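step: validate -> pass
step: tokenize input -> pass
step: predict -> running
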Amino acid sequence: MKIERRFLTLPDGKQIHYRMSGRGPAMILMHPSPISSEALIPAISVFSKKFTCIALDTPGYGLSDDSVAEKEGLWGYADAVALTLDAFKLESAVIYGAATGAQIGIQFAKRYPQRTRLLILDGAGHFSDEDKARAAESYFIDLTPRRDGSHLLAAWDASRHLSTFFPWMSGRLEDRIQADAAPLSFVQHHVNDMLRAGPDYRIAYWEAMKGESHANTVEVGVPTLLSNNTGSIIRPLTEALIAPGLPDNFTVVPSTPETRHQALLDAAAIYAGDPACPAPPPQTNTKPTIQNAMVRVPGGQLRARLCLEGEGLPLIAIHDPAGSSHLVEPVFDPYVGRRPVIAFDNPGNGESDAVIDTLNSETYAQVLNAALDELGFEEVDVLGRYSGGPVAMEMSFQRPERVQHIVQAGVSFYEGEEQTSLIENYTPSVAPRWDGSHLMTAWSIMRDQSLYWPWFNQTKDGILWTDGAIDVALTDLRTRELLKCGDRYQDAYNAMWRYPMRDKLPKLSVPCLLCHPSWEPVGYTTALAQAVDPRCKSAELAAGMADWHTDLDAFFNTP
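step: predict -> pass
step: emit ->
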């Protein structure tokens, strides 16, 4: 069954991201820490046979904003579930939680028993005082971005050992897990989720562990199903929860890793006869700020960062090959509330689905035009950063009536030996390697892009003479986006290197501004491109994106 991603905007403007699928009465699903609702897709695929599944990203995890003030005891997270029910106009729902999600479900059922038709605990147990002491000492790592990138390796170490020991940081024989090592793709995905949650990834995680006990669980007074999965790494904790005895409102559901979701669905079947869940609430923007939205396109959805407040044509910004909408968002700052602004994550980048197989400027343009069709925008101005410029041009070729102005901020004009060298050297593989060394490759690429041009020309001739060149926070963001993209970034960059700008630029029929910020080493491509098509205007922009608006406005206001 199809799963769609959506955002719910809370009264304070913060957002909760969720996945939705199925039909029938509502079931709220909550995931383990520190990951996201994506981990619940196997559960959704089963439960959606009889329920409308609404799988939340816990606030502060996945794509949900950290909207919780009362974090202690997970009470604020329980309140976020109540706000979700309010938004859907639901008096009550079935509540499913896995691991941390189970502990949030317990607190919700205790604070809102009248709104809990059934509580399903998957991956719940009892942590002893010794277990909690060990976790407090060394379970959680410091993910503060560091100049040398070592926080990435710390995340890899923790994620890789989730399949070798429980708890992961143990080396004791009695804690060894009898299982194959996790696939590298799984480890990398877990790393991505940890890095996205950032240094605060431990907050809900630790609050769940602190409260996970027999005494807290048996305070639940609503009908409750407890999964006892024979293959779970925390089965000893589940058995420790069951051993002292459970109230009559609890039903233990035996299962295996292969059958646990179906077993829980079968046990929950008597709760599946209620009215269907209402339609999802429309996404609202309570104030003129940049927010998230998911936009349907053929084959999936794109994530957009946008604010549709204001007058005039929407300004569309397209990011670079290994980036995301976050990297062009600073361009929007002066426009928020004044004119509509939208930045999509390109297909396969950021949080957008990989809806195309062949990555090139033409296919990117097709998908972005489809997204604008979905949003109902007939005319737009487009700014492309690096590879975004060719995509903007192709959007114009495909839909000449739509694109009114094009800004190419960093012109993709590469030929001859330079083009060959870039294709051969710019994009080494960042595919996951068992020792985590690919993480340092990714970090080093993104760090050195601020030190040399091209980054692999580490000679005095390649030096970029900029102040404050190594911005650790920005390097961390760009590395995270690269790791999410993976080796698809090679095709994305190669599409930019190979774009036939010399042939294509003279075919444009809309005004085009060729420009670059003052510090950028590829300013020479601006002059090359303008020599090919003197109709284009050119400009040297301010160093910071937030200061580009003066030159951009002067250009957009020209006929």
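step: describe -> The chain has three domains: 4-126+212-271, 143-198, 291-415+499-556.
step: cleanup -> pass
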